[in-house]
Task: inverse folding
DNA sequence: TAGATTGTTAATCGATTAACAATC
DNA sequence: TAGATTGTTAATCGATTAACAATC
C-alpha cells in the first residue's frame, strides 16, 4: 500500500510528523477528512491530500481516512515502527534537558549513551542515561549500535566531534550547534538553532 | 541604506541570521565575498547576494562586503540593535535549560521572568531568573514590558496559555509545544518541534 | 589595465493551490 | 440516490539559480 517513492519534496516529512501527532489526538474516532486535518494542522486540505499521495492511497472517497490505518502507514513511512539507538554528545544544560525529553522516547528514539569531555561527568547516570568520557566514544557507540547522535556541544567543537561520531558509525546528526556541519553526503543532518528562531521573531515584530 | 522592504521571502530571515553568525567568526578580517559566505553557510553565492539585495546594497563590486558594516546592517534588519524582554512559561527540564541558554542572551534576548503553575517553584530564582506563579502572569508581564514569550509547557495547556500570554501583551511566541497554535493574526509565532526534526532523520535513514 | 565581484534580470526549478472526475 | 470527499492533473505561485553588465 505504501508506494515506492518518486520524488518527495523535502517539506512533506515534517508535515507528515504533524499529521501523525494530530491523529494521536483523535484516538477513538474512526475516520478523519483532509478538511479536518487542515483545520488542526493549519495546512490546506489540498496539501494534506497531496502529501499523502506521495506515499500511496490511504483514503476513501466520500469518507476520508481511517485514523488507525493512517497512523500505522505514517509510522512506517517515518520509520517509527522500530527502536532507534541514539547517543547524546555534550552533557550541558541543554543536553541534560534532552536526556529526559519525552518526545524522543515516546516515538522510539532511545538515548542509550551520552558523552562529555568533562571527566567529572563520566561514570555518572543522569536521567537514567550513563555518561561516558568522550574518549570512549567509538567503543561505546559501536557496542550499543548507535544509529544517530544528538549534538549539544559548543560551536567551536561541533564540526570535529560530529565527524568523529560519523567515524564511529552514526548515520544521522541532530545538530543544536549554530554551525553548518560539513559531513559526508550519506550522513543525514537536521539543524535546530534556537537563536535563529528567536531572531526571526524579533525581525517580525520590529518591522511592525 | 536599508531599503524599505518589498516582498521578503519568509526563508531569507533564517539565512540572514546564519550570515550574521558567520560574520562574527571573521572578526578582524576586512572584507568577505558572497563566495566565501557561500562556503561557510552552504547556500549558493547567488542566494547570498540575492538575500542581501532584499534589504539594500551592502557590497562593493570587485571587493565584496565590508564585514563590520554588514554586521551592523544585519543587526538592524533583524532587530538585534536593542534589548528584548522575554518571559519563559513552563519551568520544566527544557524550560530550565533555556533559562540559561547563552544564545538568547548574547543577542539581546533577556529572559526577565519565568512562570510555572507549580506553587513549589514560585518565588525561587533559577539561573538568575525569578519564577512567578502562573496566576501572576499578566501583572508581571506588563510591569516588565515583556515583548515575547518562550513556551515550554505541555501540549495540552499550550493553546490556552499562549492565548493568555497574548492577552498579557506578548507580541510573539517561540513555541516548543507540538501543536499548531491559533492566535490573532498580528501575533508572530515560530515553532521548534524537536520530535519532528528527529523523525525527519529516521525517515531519511530508514529509506536508505 | 585586468581581475574580481557585485546587484539585478531572466530562466529555471520546485512547491502549493484549484479544480474536478471518480467513487464511496 | 445525493452528498461528501478522495486522488490527481493542470494552473499558479514563489523561490533559487544562472548569467552578465556595471564597477571597483
Result:
Amino acid at each position: 500500500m505504501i508506494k515506492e517513492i518518486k520524488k518527495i519534496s523535502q517539506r512533506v516529512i515534517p508535515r507528515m510528523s504533524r499529521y501523525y501527532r494530530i491523529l494521536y489526538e483523535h484516538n477513538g474516532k474512526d475516520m478523519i477528512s483532509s478538511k479536518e486535518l487542515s483545520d488542526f494542522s493549519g495546512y490546506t486540505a489540498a496539501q494534506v491530500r497531496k502529501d499523502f499521495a506521495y506515499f500511496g492511497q490511504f483514503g476513501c472517497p466520500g469518507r476520508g481516512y481511517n485514523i488507525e490505518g493512517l497512523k500505522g502507514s505514517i509510522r512506517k513511512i517515518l520509520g517509527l515502527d522500530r527502536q532507534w539507538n541514539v547517543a547524546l554528545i555534550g552533557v550541558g544544560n541543554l543536553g541534560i534537558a534532552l536526556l529526559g525529553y519525552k518526545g524522543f522516547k515516546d516515538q522510539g528514539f532511545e538515548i542509550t549513551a551520552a558523552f562529555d569531555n568533562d571527566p567529572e561527568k563520566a561514570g555518572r547516570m543522569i536521567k537514567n542515561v550513563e555518561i561516558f568520557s568522550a574518549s570512549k566514544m567509538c567503543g561505546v557507540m559501536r557496542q550499543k549500535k548507535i544509529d544517530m547522535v544528538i549534538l549539544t556541544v559548543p560551536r567551536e567543537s561541533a564540526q570535529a566531534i560530529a565527524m568523529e561520531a560519523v567515524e564511529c558509525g552514526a548515520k544521522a546528526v541532530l545538530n543544536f550547534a549554530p554551525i553548518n556541519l560539513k559531513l559526508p553526503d550519506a550522513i543525514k543532518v537536521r539543524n535546530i538553532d534556537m537563536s535563529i528562531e528567536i531572531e526571526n521573531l524579533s525581525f517580525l515584530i520590529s518591522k511592525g
